[in-house]
Design goal:
Blueprint: H1 3-8, E1 13-14, H2 19-35, H3 43-53, E2 61-63, E3 67-69, E4 75-77, E5 81-83, E6 87-90, E7 95-97, E8 102-103, E9 108-110, E10 112-113, H4 118-122, E11 125-128, E12 131-133, E13 138-139, E14 144-145, E15 150-151, E16 156-157, E17 162-163, E18 171-175, E19 178-183
Helix pairs in contact: 2-3
Length: 197
């Protein structure tokens, strides 16, 4: 079993010194280097590079500004995906994002985790656990999603939240560590005043 197969199974793997892992990461960095230097109006080339990099995309998606990931091939995005600037996805394991998802600036989706003991950590070993984000999810600015988390459909993750556990569908989730604040209801669809009164 090679190192990326170990990673896919949630086992410790050599993320820092294995030649095959490093080459796959470098291949992604080459594409990202080109992608992150394109002018804003070079949409066709940008979308082509995203499709080349990611494991799966919908027909319609937008990555505004800088984007960074480890491998790319472990990332799947659904239809009508939007990511604002500075999205970071550490995709040692699968990251699957549903349809109609909106991601605000400076968000990190981190499948990577590290052993607590320094001896194994110093050998470059880490593990990766998948992240799944459902349909119609909004992730606010500066959110960090930790390894192994599932975010349910229609959830809203408030800005600055650290998501360390699964998020139920249809809720507002906020804090550090994140917790359910309340359910999103039909009344939220009727709201017209969005001031912070």
């Amino acid at each position: 079993m090679d190192e990326l197969e170990k990673a896919a199974k949630g086992m410790l793997y050599d993320a820092n010194y294995d030649a095959a892992v490093l080459e796959k990461r470098k291949a992604a960095k080459r594409i990202l280097h080109r992608l992150n230097r394109l002018a804003p109006d070079e949409d066709a080339e940008r979308n082509g590079l995203i499709r080349q990099l990611l494991g799966k995309t919908g027909e319609r998606f937008v990555f505004d500004g800088q984007f960074h990931c480890d491998f790319g091939f472990n990332i799947e995005i659904g239809e009508d995906f939007y990511a604002n600037v500075n999205l970071v996805i550490l995709d040692g394991a699968k990251v699957v994002i549903g349809n109609n998802c909106f991601i605000a600036p400076n968000v990190g989706l981190f499948t990577a985790g590290h052993p607590l003991d320094p001896a194994r950590r110093n050998k470059g070993l880490e593990y990766a656990l998948p992240i799944t984000i459902g349909n119609d999810v909004w992730i606010g600015g500066g959110v960090s999603v930790m390894p192994g988390v599932t975010v349910g459909d229609r959830a809203m993750i408030a800005a600055g939240t650290v998501v360390t556990k699964d998020v139920p569908p249809g809720v507002i989730f906020a804090g550090n560590p994140g917790r359910v604040i309340r359910e999103i209801t039909e009344k939220d669809g009727e709201r017209t005043d969005f001031s912070r009164k």
